[in-house]
Amino acid sequence: MREDVAMASVRTPDPNPGWLSEIALEETRSRVPILYVEGIPVRVDSHGRVEHVGLLLRGSATTGAMSRTFVSGRVTHGESVRDALLRNLEKDLGPTAFPQLPSSIVPFTVAEYFPLPGVAPLHDARQHAVALVYVVPVTGECNPRQDALELTWMTPQEVLSPLVLDEMEGGRGTLVRQALAYLGALD
Amino acid sequence: MREDVAMASVRTPDPNPGWLSEIALEETRSRVPILYVEGIPVRVDSHGRVEHVGLLLRGSATTGAMSRTFVSGRVTHGESVRDALLRNLEKDLGPTAFPQLPSSIVPFTVAEYFPLPGVAPLHDARQHAVALVYVVPVTGECNPRQDALELTWMTPQEVLSPLVLDEMEGGRGTLVRQALAYLGALD
Amino acid sequence: MREDVAMASVRTPDPNPGWLSEIALEETRSRVPILYVEGIPVRVDSHGRVEHVGLLLRGSATTGAMSRTFVSGRVTHGESVRDALLRNLEKDLGPTAFPQLPSSIVPFTVAEYFPLPGVAPLHDARQHAVALVYVVPVTGECNPRQDALELTWMTPQEVLSPLVLDEMEGGRGTLVRQALAYLGALD
Amino acid sequence: MREDVAMASVRTPDPNPGWLSEIALEETRSRVPILYVEGIPVRVDSHGRVEHVGLLLRGSATTGAMSRTFVSGRVTHGESVRDALLRNLEKDLGPTAFPQLPSSIVPFTVAEYFPLPGVAPLHDARQHAVALVYVVPVTGECNPRQDALELTWMTPQEVLSPLVLDEMEGGRGTLVRQALAYLGALD
Fold it and tell me: In this structure, what DSSP letter does residue D42 have?
C-alpha cells in the first residue's frame, strides 16, 4: 500500500496542495500528458511593439551544459491556468517583475513536448507535456530565482540568430520563432 | 501491488496504449489536471458562416437525466492533440462525418472544469479537467455511437434559448455562447 | 475644381496629414469601406481577469439622445494600426490613461458596419466601416475629452444587462458580448 | 467636373457596384488605407496538418519580372469580408477549387502595406493597404484565371527556402513565415 494513501487521514494539511511526491509525479508522467503553462517575457514600447525578449539561461544540474528557456511550470491539481501562470512568472522572474497577464487565456500557441527526440520539433525527456504558451509584457525589474542563473534581454533580431535558437531547451527555438511571428517581429 | 504493474512484463502488447485502468485513472485524476479536447460540430454555408450547431444528447447512466454536450475526450499519453481530436470526433460522430480539422491547433477557448460546482462556470464532478476547445465544420453524415443517444442540429438562435443552454452538461452553456461569439453568430 | 487640390502646391505643410476635408471624406465613404480601430478599455486584476469595462457615454449632436460606445476612430492614410489605436485611446481617454496596447495586432474580432440598419447586427448611417477591435487594459486615470461626456466603469454583469446593451451605439451590444466571451467573463 | 459624377443620374445600373473608375480608385488610394483580404491556399491531411502551400506565380505587366503572391483583392463598398474572400478565391483559383472558408472572420494576421519600401516589412507602390489574411484549405482543383500564370503547390520546407521567400511580392515572405508559424509548420 502506498504511504501517501495510508497517511491521508492522519497527516496535517498539505502546505502545497497540488504538489506531488517524486514517485507520484514520475508515475503520473507515465500515464497522462502533463499540463504546463509557459510565459515568454517581453519588453514593449508605448505602442505595444516588442523591443526585447527575455530568455532564462539555465545550467543543467546533471551535465552542467547551459541552455535557454522560458518561464515554465506545471498547472497543479485544482489550480487555474491564470494562477499557474502568475505563480511561475513570480517564481522565475521574482516579485518585482510586474508581469501584465493576458486578459484572455487563449494561448498564442499550444506546445506539445514528447519524450522521444525527433518525433516532433519539441521534446522533454521527462514526460509528454502540453503547454499553453503566452507572451507576457513585464514592466518591472526581473530577479530570477531558483535554478535559473540569469535573465537576458535580447532584441528580436538577436533571438533569431542561429546560435541563440540552438541553445534553446527542448527545441524551443521553434516556439520563440512562433512567438515573434505572432508579434509581427520576424523581420 | 497494483495488477497492471505486476502484469506489465508478461501481458501481450496493450491494444490501447495510453488507456488506463479505472483505478489508475481515478488516482491520476486526484493528482493532476487532466487534458481534454472538445469539438463543437457545425454546418457552415459556402461562405463559412455557421448555419447549424451539433449538440449530443446523452442520458446519464446513473440518474437517467438527459443532458447536451460536445464531442469530448482525453488526450492520452503519447497522443498528439490533433490525433486526440480526430479520434474523439470519430468516436462520437461516426466514420462518415468527414470533420474538417482546424489547420492551427490554437483553440478558440480553453475550458477549465473544477470538481466542485460553483467555484467556476464549468464543473466536472470526476476531476479537474482543462480542455482545448475547437469549432469543427463537418460535411458528412453523423451517426453517434457509444453512449450518445442522438445528435441534434440547431440554429444558433435555437442553441441560445435558455432551455437548451440549461440542458448543457457541466455548465457548457457558457462555452457554446463563447463559440457563437467567436463565430460572429450571437445575433 | 476642388479647393484642397488647387491649394496643394502653395499651402504650408498639413499639420494633420491623413485628415480629409468633409467633402473628400464623404466622397470616399461612398466609394470604399473605411478602416477603423476600436478599443474596449478594461480594468484587470493582477491575474489579468477583467473586473470592469469602460463605456463612453455620448450625446448625439443632432438628436440629443444618449448612447454608449467604445474608443473608436479611423486609420488615416499612412498611419499604422498601432499608431491609430494609441492616438484614438489618447483622444477619448486623455493623456493619463496609460493604456497597455496589445503586443499582437491580431484583433479579437473584426466588426463590419453597414449603412443600412437591419442587414447585419452592426450599422453606421455614415458609411460602410470595418473595424479591428481590441481589448485594452488601462491602469491610469481616464479623462474623456471631445464629444464624449463621461466614461463609466461597469462590471461584466452590469454591461450584460439588457438596458446597457440596448444603449450601445450601432448595435455594439453584440460586440461587447463578443469581448466578454473572449475574456471568459460571460458568466 | 468629374464624369462619373455627372453621369450618375442617367447611366444604367452599375453591373459591378463597388468597383471604381481608375481615376476614382487612384484618388481614393491617396486618401485612406484600402482594405484587402488575402487568402493563403493550403492542402491539409485528414488531421488538419498542412501538407502544401499554394503560391501564385505572376508576371509583372510592366517589367515582365516574375513574382509569387497569395490570393488577394479589395473589399468593395457594401461587400462583406466573407463575400470578398470567396470572390477573390474564385477569381484566382477558379470555380472548382472548393475552398473551405474560415468559420470565424478573425484573421491569423493583419498585414500593413505602405507605399514606400523600407519603412515596414511589407510595401505596395500603389497604396497604403491593410489586409486581413486567412489560411484557406482547398480540396478541389485549382485553375488560376486572370493575370496569374500558375499555381504552385509547395511543401512548407520548400516555401521556407530563401529563394522562394525572396520571390514573394511586396515582402510577403514575412507573411508566409507568419502563416507557417501559425500552422505549427515552421520546422
Answer: E
Interface pTM, i.e. ipTM: 0.89
pLDDT tens, residue order, chain C (187 aa): 333 333 334 445 555 667 789 999 999 999 999 999 999 999 999 999 999 999 999 877 677 788 999 999 999 999 999 999 999 999 999 999 999 999 999 999 999 999 988 888 999 999 999 999 999 999 999 988 766 578 999 999 999 999 999 999 999 999 999 999 999 998 7
Beta carbons of C46 and A86 less than 8 Å apart:
yes
Domain ranges of chain D: 3-182
Question: In sequence order, which residues have a C-beta less than 8 Å from that of residue D41 and are 6 or more positions away?
Answer: D53, D54, D70, D71, D89, D93, D97, D99, D136, D137, D138, D142, D151
What CATH class is the domain C3-182?
Answer: alpha beta
> Are B80 and B105 a contacting pair, CB within 8 Å?
no
CA torsion angle B62 B67 B68 B73 (round to 10):
-20
CB A51 within 8 A of CB A137: no
How far, rounded to the nearest angstrom, does the alpha carbon of residue D141 sit from its chain's CA centroid? 19
D51 CB neighbours in chain B (<8 A) are none
Phi, psi of B81 (to 5 degrees): -60, -45
Asked if C34 lies within 8 A of D34 by C-beta distance, the reply is no
Report how far Cα B30 is from the mean position of its chain's Cα atoms: 20
Q: With contacts defined as CB-CB under 8 Å, which chain B residues touch A74?
A: 32
Q: Are A100 and C43 in contact (CB under 8 A)?
A: no
Q: Which residue among D121, D186, D187 sits closest to A187, beta carbon to beta carbon?
A: D121
Query: Which chain D positions have a beta carbon within 8 Å of A159's beta carbon?
Result: none
C129-137 vs C148-154, strand pairing mode: unpaired
